[in-house]
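notes to self, project folder thing:

trying the whole complex as one job this time. last attempt i did each chain seperately and stitching them together was a nightmare. three parts in total, labels are on each line so i dont mix them up again. if this works i'll redo the older ones the same way
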Amino acid sequence: MTVILPLLFLLTAISGTAVVLVRDPVRQVFAIAVNGLVLAILFDALQAPDVALSELTVGAAAVPLLFLVALMAVRTQPPEEKP
Amino acid sequence: MTMLPYAVAAWLFGIGLYGIATSRNFIHLVGCLGICQSATYVLLLGLGYRWGSIAPIFYDHPPGTPAVDPVMQALVLTDIVVGATLTALLLVLTIQAYKRGGSLDPEKLRPMRAGGGSRRNQASSRADDGAGKTS
Amino acid sequence: MSPRIRVALLALAGLILLPCAATVIAGLPPFGATIAQYGERINAITPEARHVANMVSAINFDLRGLDTLGEEFMLLAAITGTVVLLRGRRGEGNTEHAMRRPGRAVIPRSEAVVLACRIAGPLTALFGLYVVVHATVTPGGGFQGGVILASATLLIYLGEGYAGWRDAIHSHWLDAMEGGGALLFALCGLAPMLTGAAFMQNVLPLGTFRDLFSGGLMLVENLGVALAVTGGFTQLFLEFMEETRAADEPDEPGEESA
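result (full assembly):
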């Protein structure tokens, strides 16, 4: 555990940085999903299985999906012409 | 190692703020806000951890075994779920801002007016739609 | 404000706040050395006092149940806001046409996907239910299980298509689940007061430690949270997906070529 935890913390920092530095929102969605997965693994290593389960379902599945749908909604629809 | 989790939390919060300040796309901005939020998870769970302790679930281990702090976990747990719905709310606001203002770029955001006064600069900003163009 | 000034301001704020953050971090207890007394006491007392094995659920649904009530209504408010914002512009109806990006081929759903979703969907839902009902025993509870259940309904979308998904899931039920769950949670707080107990006091029989029926009132509150989260997240998915459908308005013929 003494080796795994620091590595996971560093991995979290790297994946979080990646989410910010990936400027293209479409690619960023994948960075967000990976970040959610890394966070879930970190939480599990921190003896928080409840939180890991929550982060796994929310951070790695639900939130990226919402981002994808928002992107799709923005990309397929032109702005309103007239109210 | 003793300070690493807190440093990681501070770094995540800082990099999230940097992303928010420099973002040129609202959807990217919401993602950066999520990173700021994950800093709180890391901080809280880091504070609640203790070496050699089990998870605070006394099913396989008898009660009384040293366990990590359950209060922090309860805080983070609800935070994650409620945070996801707030992300959804922000994304919807983004979609609405795009439909009304014609752009996803925070720089091009103009105050909304009831009579549709913001439609004038729509044509100029239409070119840079949500197709992921960044600065 | 130009982006350059904004970054400069952020750097300035960072320079000022960095020493403060460093001081705070230096003042925190070293990582992994000790935990707060409150958590320590909860770990020591709660298994006996409440007959539950999962401390996190015990805090969420009993010891700090009032906070969860607040979270519950935050959830409700956020989802209501989302739905209002989306429906306000679009109306309550739903449409049959998917929106297409010009120049992208429409690939029909393969039979392998349908089969995989038909197998995985019920299994995911079952796992979600398992996570919900074992809230007081093993890791899990209404929050996690609710999101898993909501994700299971997405497999219907993936396997059966949008029309099948909308046929299987009705928005009105979701509204009822979401609001009903929050109401159930609030009633769990108020009902004990009828018997003369305090708000959200655990008046039901506590059950057996490590058994499925343990925790008394927590089980009901957990059910309320599960209902609200399942309904709320499915509603979110539904409303977001509806946003990607073609508008039904007749005055948008040029949309396919936009």
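what i see at first glance: Residues 53-95+108-248 of chain C form one domain.
need to look closer tmrw
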